[in-house]
Amino acid sequence: MDTSATEQSPKVTLLADYEQPAYLVDEALLQFDLDSAKTRVVSTLTMRKNPQGPEADCILDGEALTLVSLKLDGKKLEGNQFQRTTSQLLIPNLPDKFELEIITEIEPDQNTALEGLYYSGSILCTQCEAEGFRRITYYPDRPDVMSVFTVTIVADREKWPVMLSNGNMEDQGVFDDGRHWVRWHDPHPKPSYLFALVAGDLHVQQDSFTTQSGREVALRIYVDPENKHKCDHALTSLKQAMKWDEDTYGREYDLDVFMIVAVNDFNMGAMENKGLNIFNAACVLATPETATDDDFYTIQSIVAHEYFHNWSGNRVTCRDWFQLSLKEGFTVMRDQSFSADLNSAAVQRIDDVNGLRSMQFAEDAGPMAHPVRPDSYIEISNFYTVTIYEKGAEVVRMINTLVGDEEFRKGTDLYFDRHDGQAVTTDDFVKAIEDANAVDLSQFKRWYEQAGTPELTIDTNYDPIEHRFTLTVTQACPATPGQATKQPFHIPLAVGLLDKSGTSLDMQLEDEAEPHHGDTRILSVTEASQTFEFINVSSEPLASVLRGFSAPVKLKYDLSNHQLAFLMVNDKDSFNRWDAGQKLIINILLELVADIQQNNPLVLSSLLVNQFERILTDKKLDPALIAKMLTLPTENYLAAQMTTPDVDAIHQAREFLKRNIAVSLKGLFNQTYEKLSVKKAYDFNADDMAMRSLKNVCLSYLVASGDPLQLQRCLRQMKQADNMTELLAGLRLMVDQSGLERENALRSFYEQWKQDRQVVDKWLAVQAASTLPDTLIRVKGLMKHEAFSIKNPNNVRALIGMFCRNNPVHFHAKDGSGYRFLAEQILVLDKLNPQVAARMLGALNSWRRYDEQRQQLMKQALESIAEQQDLSADVYEIVTKYLAAE
């Protein structure tokens, strides 16, 4: 019987309703007859009832499929023997074991959602996480159904000379009609979300890696032929990741070949499909001429991340999508550690925390706040969030901190050995750490269960007679949707004590026989209020709290500007040096905002100028850390520090501070810039990246000084640059300068790079971030430019996303034009690519925090979206939560 689905509000999926699958798939044989307009898929599934599952009919997921035929154990099923809706195929009365043959047809070139099998340029490729496989064939499309896949692909040999799938290639051949075929077999059981297929006329760059056990693994990167010169860095990064994972976690790769494919149209950064990683081209292609230092760094990190998934996500996968952070949080923590080991550990930690504070803390404070392990969802794609990934990584990092490095490795070894080939939960991960080390992490698991950002209040007292220093920690966590009250978290708090000269003091707790030697010790905070008493403290110390950002918390620690300035130049912890400086800058900026609001004259802080001068002239300090310490907090982050953000005053205050620091230290910025302007061939390494970073920070201050000669210096850097890092740094500064030179610079840049899609996205993003008054008009004009397609997620992120998320002074224009623009684009995108549309909505996450006029305008924009008929589940879930939140 063939029925259509009843129109209704999207279904809510609850963690509490989880049941094991009623049926399992032991073997999946797939045959694809490829064509971009119509692809035929023959799926032969060897299935059986799950002895641990419920007594239920067999339900297979399927969307946007044409069902050609259905056979049970070789016999065709008629229409009255099954039921079909727009999203499922239900087959009743099945035996305990059976074979199901399903023939479906799909239309890849009509698939603008970029889920399942779709057409990207001249490449056919797949994206199946989270629920894309159901757009290929009917299947129990859930992560706890794991099967051994064998895939045969047939296609026109001239059009699709390269045909790839998961695992090892078993056989291939050519038909008389000019078509050819290839068979791939993956011996490792996997869920359908890890399935991958790619076909196209692709260039392959090859290398190899010898594992610690002596096996040789073929490494291959497939790209469009015009990008064949951009693969070296990704291959180097892959080999670095493979060695690091062996050395650090004892994990060896398990197939004969590891493949990466770069595609231009991709909703995510990359996907860890077993043995066949599919990457957004922007996250894998790089040369010094076309990619910045940040691009090289990001590619190294993402290549490692997807490779590390081979164990933390593929060999051991998640039981259900509520457990998404089981693989993502753990793997992000692993790729962050990898990047820290290969580059500047201090800068890596600062960047990680900057992202967390800027985006995840805002998510925790908004209507989409959810635990690291959510309780419910309407559309799982909406939960690929910074909470799942970045906060999830912090949770795993805290476990490592609490148990220690060697103990954490013992725990992960047990986890991988115990659960290899299984689909498991975050509880299983924590249990493995507990069992390997005889520790109790039951209270710690609240980090997985409770949403929100805990707030720690620090109070200190020193008794000069008893030489006793008391540190009291009080923790609280604000209410979040569905969680009004929170139980105390288990928080590792890294603390150091400094005397007035900046020397570290020993830290002996009252109940200890011996003092703790070393700069830092970890305090285990488990109560709502907890006091730690240190004895034999020779002089009054200044406590350096939350070193290395040992927990994802907000800190209320009442330090004066002078104390922050002291820590900025004396703290032994690099992260806390940077953090003290940021807090000092924020205090000064918020004072300037208040002066602007009260029409008071603005005065530059001599304290901050003095500290900047000390940092700039500190020859012992890592130039990369200097660059970070001289960089002012973003306007978005400053807005997050205010109860009611004043967008215009924040912008004015930040511009005033930067301009006046630039004028005060112009000579020193000039001297440093010239010193770093040594001509040498580009190399991607930590030292050279640090030099370029500091050089470009100095240039940004010199241009901010208002001296017209500095614009000529900026143009000269662009003209002489032999790498994208220095070229783009100059262009970013020029787009904020009105006049002919700006337009000439933009025109010249585009003419030089218009054939390179990744570089053109940089050109779009630079203009979207401009502070000039006509930016929204320019953005709208660029949407009609030949370089832009609203069907391409990278274009959308570069232009619309950059404007709405990273240009607050124009996005939050008082007339509401920015909000209306976003609403219009979301409604267009929702019909094409609901995932991308939903992610664009994040720009309105904090709408209730703004002044009454802006709140009303943002609400109108959200309501204009909510009023539309046939919204996707992706957009419906977010917009209704935004409007419902109090």
TrEMBL record:
Its EC number is 3.4.11.2. It comes from the Bacteria. It holds the Pfam family DUF3458_C. It catalyses: Release of an N-terminal amino acid, Xaa-|-Yaa- from a peptide, amide or arylamide. Xaa is preferably Ala, but may be most amino acids including Pro (slow action). When a terminal hydrophobic residue is followed by a prolyl residue, the two may be released as an intact Xaa-Pro dipeptide. InterPro entries: Aminopeptidase_N-like_N, Aminopeptidase_N-like_N_sf, PepN_Ig-like_sf, Peptidase_M1, Peptidase_M1_dom, Peptidase_M1_pepN, Peptidase_M1_pepN_C, Peptidase_M1_pepN_C_sf. GO terms for molecular function: alanyl aminopeptidase activity; metallopeptidase activity; zinc ion binding. One of its GO terms (biological process) is proteolysis. It is an enzyme of class 3 (hydrolase). Keywords: Aminopeptidase, Hydrolase, Metal-binding, Metalloprotease, Protease, Zinc. The keyword Transport does not apply. Its cofactor is Zn(2+). Residues 30-194 form the Aminopeptidase N-like N-terminal domain. Residues 452-558 form the Peptidase M1 alanyl aminopeptidase Ig-like fold domain. Residues 234-447 form the Peptidase M1 membrane alanine aminopeptidase domain. Residues 562-883 form the Peptidase M1 alanyl aminopeptidase C-terminal domain. Belongs to the peptidase M1 family. Aminopeptidase N is involved in the degradation of intracellular peptides generated by protein breakdown during normal growth as well as in response to nutrient starvation. This is Aminopeptidase N.
